[in-house]
Amino acid sequence: MKVLGRILDTKLDPLMGSTGWCMLDGDCCFVCAMDGNSLTSLDVFNPAAMSVLQALTDPILGRLTGCEGIAIRGNYCHVGGYTSDRFTVVDKTDPSNMSIVASLQDAELLDGACTIDNFGDYDFVGAYNKHRLTVVRVNDPLNPVIVGNNFQDVVNLRNPTYVKCSRSGQYLFVTARGSDKFVTMSISNPLDISIAGSCPCGLRISGMCLSADEKLAYVADSQGNSLIVVDIEVPTAPSVLGTTAAVIPWALVPACVSGTRFILVTSYNGDEVAVVDAYDPANPFVVEFLQDAALLNGADDIKYRNGVAFVTLNAGGGLTSVSLKPRHVVTAKKCGSYSMRRCVSRSKVIT
After folding, report:
1. CA 58, CA 347: separation in Å to the nearest integer?
2. Verdict on whether the full-model pTM lies above 0.85
3. Which distant-in-sequence residues (6+ apart) come within 8 Å of 72 by Cβ?
């Protein structure tokens, strides 16, 4: 791996300080900056020469205060407000001229809103400080409405940190940092969601990603400094299959390298990105690190496409692009013999 580029415009305060959750959409990356109280759009068509399109702020009404957590639905970004207890809708039709079109605030149902995912007409929002999942109907982007039973569980769902919908829309997978649990929620009826299954999972767990077939979840174990593999083939009975050695200091967010067995993981305390080989889910192991105290300072969220990872920097601010080695982006079809050899001989890295 190597760093391709970094964008940090010192003229734009919103890109300074802490950048967190981000989303790729076409040639744009939308970045939440909690300290900057902003949503910033960047042109990442050329990862080596990224540029800021717009840094959207709202200092008067505070609708982007503590901006954290983002989902994209059509022409709109849905963002959470961790410190402002908000859910805000931003029109991104023109990424260089974004505008806020709606915002909800609720000190109880959106307290610490920090993670969002969407399925159909509904968004599922993790309210970190109130240990609940709040459902927002978003079929009319100009008029989002909180609906349903607004599920709360201080034992099993304490501090929901990351949420991810299944493609079927039947389940929502949740990492509950305060409970040290991986939780499956039934969301087939968004107005009456409930816990369908759970399992103990690590210490202070954070982000997750799902395998392409949605049979596995990869969970960052922050305090355990590792990546955990969770079996979700039966979503109502999740179970831990394996974990890496504790070599990823304060692991934060994983990202699947599509079409391969490799998982990328950010390390906040290590200022690095790790590559994990998860061919054998019971025995995942780190095969490479890229560490850079300046360009990966406080590595936070990570998104991947076309051989490049985009990393936000919770401590350093901005966005860094990282290119992967060719052998880590080979398609699943082409890596069969390599995978088998690598799985059998763990003492030798095949280049």
Report:
1. 54
2. yes
3. 23, 25, 30, 78, 92, 118
Q: Is 51 helix (H, G, I), strand (E, B) or coil?
A: strand
324, 10 contact by CB (below 8 A): no
* Residues contacting 259, CB < 8 A, separation 6+: 212, 329, 330, 331, 332, 333
What are the tens digits of pLDDT across the range 245-256? 999 999 999 999
Please, which residues have CB within 8 angstroms of residue 345's CB and are 6 or more apart in sequence? none
Other CB atoms closer than 10 Å to residue 62's CB: what's the count?
Answer: 17
Other C-beta atoms lying within 10 Å of the C-beta of residue 334:
11
- Give backbone dihedrals phi and psi of 53, rounded to 5 degrees, phi first: -90, -45
Cα separation, 176 vs 135, in Å, equals 17
Block residue for tokens 């997978």: 173
Per-domain residue ranges of the chain: 2-344
Give the H/E segment covering residue 230.
Answer: strand 226-231
pLDDT band, residue 347 (cuts 50/70/90):
very low
Contact 6, 295 (CB under 8 A): yes
Look up residue 250 and give its two tokens.
Answer: 């304060």
The matching CATH number, chosen from 3.40.930.10, 3.40.50.970, 2.30.42.10, 2.130.10.10, for 2-344 is 2.130.10.10
What distance in Å separates the CA atoms of residue 144 and residue 138, rounded to the nearest whole number? 5
Q: How many alpha carbons lie under 13 Å from residue 3 in its C-beta half-sphere?
A: 19
| Cα–Cα distance list, 333 to 110, 277, 329, 349 (Å) | 44, 16, 11, 20
Location of structure tokens 């767990």: 205
Question: Stretch 101-121: mean pLDDT, rounded?
Answer: 97
d(CA 236, CA 232): 8
64 touches 37 (CB < 8 A): yes
